[in-house]
Write a structure and sequence with these properties.
With 85 residues, the protein is of the alpha+beta class. It contains three helices and five strands, in the order βαβααβββ. The protein has a single domain, classed as Beta-grasp domain (Ubiquitin-like (UB roll)). A hairpin with a 2-residue loop joins β3 and β4. It is globular, with a radius of gyration of 13 Å. The chain starts with a strand and ends in an 8-residue tail after the last strand.
């Protein structure tokens, strides 16, 4: 099965990509997918393990135990900060 991973903000600079498709075995969890990404994109690994990256599946926050399905979309977003209003 294949899932699409989208990178936002500084994660695009780190990976050099805006998105990538990841080939996974059936019954792969989100946590396993992120672990695989850490291997294929080693500069991303420390950030994924930091707990500071917002991870969404199909535009909804998801836990590492989420069982991925073929064609799902994973979005990785670094912490955002805002300015004064």
């Amino acid at each position: 099965m294949t899932v699409r991973v989208l990178f936002f903000a500084t994660l695009q600079d780190i990976t050099g990509k805006t998105e990538t498709d990841v080939l996974l075995e059936p019954r792969t969890t989100l946590e396993q997918c992120l672990s695989q990404l850490s291997v294929t994109l080693p500069d991303l690994g420390p950030l994924l393990g930091s707990g500071r990256i917002l991870v969404c599946v199909n535009r909804e926050p998801a836990s590492g135990a989420h069982l991925l399905q073929d064609g799902e979309e994973i979005a990785l977003m670094p912490p955002f900060s805002g300015g004064a209003v």
